[in-house]
Structures are given as C-alpha cells and as structure tokens.
Specification:
This is Threonylcarbamoyl-AMP synthase. Keywords: ATP-binding, Cytoplasm, Nucleotide-binding, Nucleotidyltransferase, Transferase, tRNA processing. It comes from Microbulbifer agarilyticus. GO terms for molecular function: ATP binding; double-stranded RNA binding; L-threonylcarbamoyladenylate synthase; tRNA binding. The longest helix has 11 residues. This protein has 7 helices and 9 strands, in the order αββαβααβαβαβαβββ. Helix content is about 30%, strand content about 20%. The protein has a single domain, classed as DHBP synthase. Helix 1 crosses helix 6. It has a 9-stranded mixed β-sheet. The protein has about 180 residues and is α/β, with parallel strands linked by helices. Strand 8 and strand 9 form a beta hairpin.
C-alpha cells in the first residue's frame, strides 16, 4: 500500500502504524476525535496525558510557533528537523483530545522520510505516539506492531525506523528544560 493510500486512510478517520526516527508510531488525524479515541483505546492510554503532533513541514506548526520569543524559536530551530519534541503553549488552538489536560502541545518536525512525507501527503500534522500498549516496550520492528495490535490497525508500513536507540527527546519551549532525555 502506498504513502498516498496511508494518508487517505488517516484522512478517512483510520489509525495506522508507521516508522519514526527511533520506534514505530501510531498515527491518526488530530482533528478527528473518534480516530484519536480509537488510537488511545488501542494503546490503553489515558486521553488526559496528551499526544504528540508530528509533521515534515514546519509551516504546519506556524500558528503555534508565532507566539514564541526569538530565543525560544532559536532553541527549537536548532534541533529541527529531527528527533526532538517541543512542548509549546497551544492557546486553545488544539483540541483537548490531543492536548489532554495540558496548556501546551507536543510538536516534532520530523526528518524521518516516510513520516515526513506522510504528513505532507495528509496536508497537516498527524498524531504520532509510540506503537505499544501502555506499559509495554515501544515497537522497534514491524513484527512487534503486529504482535501488539494484530489486525486492529488500518495500515502498517513505511519501511524501517531511523535506528535511534532512544525515543525522541522532549523539551519545554518556555523554560528550555529537558522533560524526557532522548
């Protein structure tokens, strides 16, 4: 199945598995509440925790980045595209089923070839969270995704991960603090 087909599945409300810089991820349309609910049910993850938005086009995040200071933006620009996720204030521009109980949203400008192309084909950022049920190790290989989710997904594909040993680092744009080391 092609990249375009995967993007169409997301646009139609589907949930897919795709490789990222380090692990396999589950993706869906962040503006589709039912798709996000399905994704968090598959993972057995509380919706309150919030989710990461990923895109291969930094312009997809422009509405959220324009309120940042020059120093904050410089810190972000120094790490993107790449495996660093930034927490930025969302000023109620993000649906609560994506941001959870937080006043910030997690954003990553990815440089993984498939994931970047997928978001561009979809036409915006996608939800991307590690492909594993809560409490289990993130899937590093397609066979692990299949073991975890079987036929519960609408698409699994896109090649291999970028081979990083650790998940993406998460940093807070307001303070520069590392929330999760990468």
């Amino acid at each position: 199945m092609s990249l375009v087909s995967a993007a169409r599945i997301i646009a139609a409300g589907g949930v897919i598995a795709h490789p990222t810089e380090s692990v396999w991820g589950l993706a869906c349309d962040p503006n589709n509440a039912e798709a996000v609910q399905r994704l968090v049910r598959l993972k057995n993850r509380p919706l309150e925790k919030g989710l990461i938005l990923v895109s291969g086009d930094v312009n997809h995040f422009s509405g959220l980045l324009h309120n940042l200071s020059g120093d904050q933006r410089a810190r972000i620009d120094a790490t993107w595209p790449g495996p660093v996720t930034w927490l930025v204030p969302h000023f109620d521009q993000i649906p609560p089923w994506v941001s959870g109980v937080h006043h910030s949203v997690a954003l990553r400008h990815t440089n993984h070839p498939f994931t970047a192309a997928l978001s561009r084909a979809f036409g915006g950022p996608i939800v991307s969270t590690s492909a594993n049920p809560a409490g289990c190790q993130p899937a590093r290989h397609k066979f692990q995704v299949l073991r975890y989710f079987g036929d519960g997904l609408d698409f699994i594909g896109g090649g291999s991960t970028g081979g990083r040993a650790s998940p993406s680092e998460i940093r807070d744009a307001s303070s520069g603090r590392i929330v999760r080391a990468g």
